Amino acid sequence: MNKFIALLFFTLLVSCADSSVMQPFDKSQKPAEVNIKGYSKPDVLQLRLNGVPVSINGSTSYTNKIETKLDFVLDEGETDRLGIYNNETGTEVAHYNITYDNINDYRTLNFFNLPGIFLQASAVKPQVNLGKVGFEFIFPNLGEYSNTPLTNVKGILKRENGVVLAEFDNIGKKSFTEVKIYNYFSNTAPVYLELYKPGTSTPYTGSEIIKVKIKQDMGANLIVIQEKMENGILTVKGEIDVADYL
User: pTM for the complete prediction?
Assistant: First the structure.
């Protein structure tokens, strides 16, 4: 009888030990902080974290300047989805999958939601003295239609007569260039931005010189360069000036 009790006790002890081995340890956790600085006009937007609307100053829909900070906790292996939606149509404008491993990539999230474009970048209107013109450029969809593998291009800003106004060594996808300033000379004459492969005089795509007509305003101009297809032909436009919204 004593042997039976001892055997039963040993069996239970082994069973409990195996059970404890099978139980997973608590998952690692990491605090997440996302600082959002956005702008939308004229569309009204809504942010949703895992499908739940984000309240900013008591409202779950917002336009013009959009600023808030999200604080939450991420488990290792977990993915939290931050979505940006058009509040009136419910259409998703953009989304971000935030994980334990990539949270540092989303410490700050900047965006502009403007007619015809969603731009994930920060922009600060530079100080340009009276009588001067300043230009900054960004090329967010570089390669979308041209299929170029380039991540940036060289830009030369010229007058109609070919006089060089400014040169931009690296116009990239993710951030505006440094401002280049010159003397204002006309409220009607356009300027043209020619686009080349970095460090060369070769068009960044194709064989013909790519000339983008740019409207110049006195003061700061923050121009978004875009590849577009028009009647099956690749064109490059510079029609959006973020400075108009700042």
Answer: 0.75
